[in-house]
Amino acid sequence: MRRRYSGRSDSHVSSKQGEQGFWPSYADMMSAVALILFFLMLLAYIQNLITGNDLRKTKEMLESTIMQLADTESLLELTQSQVDEAEEELNTITLDLESAKLILAQQQAEMLLQQDELAKQQQLIAQQKEYVLAADEELTSMRSQMQTIAVLRLSILEQIRDSIVGVMGDASKVSIGENGSIILSEGVFFDHGSSEIKPESQPVLEQLIQVFGTFLYDSENAQYVDSIVISGHTDSTGTAMENRSLATDRANSVLNYMLTQHGGALEPYAHFFCAAGYGATRPVADNATVEGRAANRRIEISMILKDETVLDIVESYLAIEVPDTRSALGESEPVVAAEPQSTQEPSGGFAGILNWLG
């Protein structure tokens, strides 16, 4: 317990007590300030630590973002390159498409032309079908006519041969040659080296007059006949002039007799008949032998039909089957149209057939 002093002592004591009372308060205050500063510095340090960590994380994030940005830029450059390539390819495709459109337009134009040409060819095919059908009918008719002519000619030749054989009673001196002629030996009408008709041959000539008169009287037969040729032939004995003269005289003797005898029965048909002398120029056997020379001395009677060249062609045609043009030109088989050589339809008769076949 402190003592209290009075007087100055008290005053001094009071002063000391007052100082002692002030400084502890200041020290407390400074301690508090220092503590505050310490806490502030601690807070600042902590803040710096926190800020440093955040900055480091931010830096790491920034570096990661920069790397991602670089990758993105690389990807963008690659994408841009791909876009440029795609644009170039698109331009190429566009050009190809324009070219394809142009080609398509040309093809469409060509197709229209081809369709028009096809329509024309189909029309031409239809015309050709009609033409072929008409030609087929013409050939069929011609075939029938030629068969009729062949039968008629063979019939008249056989009739002449049989009539002569019936009169003579000897078939060895008359025959039908490969050329369709009646072949009569020299001895039927003439003595050797003579052009005078023997009296005993007159019945044979009478038979010839009768057969030809009956045949030509029928207009259906006469329409096919161009001429009836009586030709004389000799062997090679003697000169060529002598042989031609003898052959001609003999042919004329036979012709004159046929046109003047039997009441002039063949006179209306004289325009069909003619005579020719060939001498030794057309032998049918070897003149080196007696038999050959005898065979060469002969009279031939040939019936020449109209347009004989066409007849030869048609006779060859008769040996084959007529093609069925109707089935060949049917819808099941394609037909290629071709430019016809001639649009002229075959006219009737042998002359028209000759022009058509030519």
What features would you describe in this structure?
This protein is α+β, with helices and mostly antiparallel strands and 358 residues long. Helices cover 66% and strands 9% of the residues. It has a domain at 154-318: 60s Ribosomal Protein L30, Chain: A (2-Layer Sandwich). The chain has helices spanning 8-168, 186-189, 202-217, 219-222, 240-260, 290-296, 308-318, 325-328, 349-357, and strands at residues 174-176, 181-185, 225-233, 273-279, 298-305. Helix 5 links the parallel strand 3 and strand 4 (273-279).
List keywords for this structure.
alpha+beta; 358 residues; single chain; five-stranded mixed beta sheet; disordered C terminus
CATH superfamily of the domain at 154-318: OmpA-like domain
Helix/strand structural class: alpha+beta
Reading the helices and strands in chain order gives HEEHHHEHEHEHHH
**Radius of gyration over alpha carbons?**
68 Å
Largest sheet: 5 strands, mixed
- Quaternary state of this entry equals single chain
Ends distance:
176 Å
By DSSP, the count of extended strands is 5
